[in-house]
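Hey, quick one: can you model this chain's 3D structure?
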Amino acid sequence: MTQNKSSRSTRTRAIVEGAVMVALAAALSLAKVEFAWLQGGSVELSMVPIVLYAVRWGCGWGLGAGLVLGVLQWMFGGFAANWQSIILDYVGAFMMLGLAGVFKGKKLGIVWGSLLGGFGRFVVHYISGVTIYATYMPETFFGLTMTTPAFYSLLYNGSYMAINIVLSVVVCFALTRAKPIADYVAGSGK
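Sure thing. Here's the predicted structure for all 190 residues.
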């Protein structure tokens, strides 16, 4: 009976922390920079809370938090060409941030998790760009002639995701130096 109560308490804590981290990520996504990405994509810090959460609780919980964030991102102002775009660019892409949970309990896990989650998110956006947004490919982008959807998607999605990944890695690395964050990720007080 005691183990069951403890398990329920841990599950409840994971859900509550997930809700807080998703809310924080959604709030951080409001402070964004949009430059040349007219069909979606921006530079923001929303990846950081999901990465922190995933590294603390693991992949399963992280994937769930990323899914919820993706749905919220779409519901509150996302751009989608069709339902496939919603599934790839929001649900699938933001779920990939949960892959950071692979580094649960590892030294510098939030830094490596930020890299893996960000790369996973980029891959899904890239696939969406090649398959769905190919019809929207302009003749030129960033002053370069666009010849294939693969090149366009790489340039379009890579331009903002590279910045997001670097920003997330830098912030996560800085957070590893803060004892309260390090304790949180390590699971102190679970």
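One thing worth noting: The beta strands are 140-141, 144-145.
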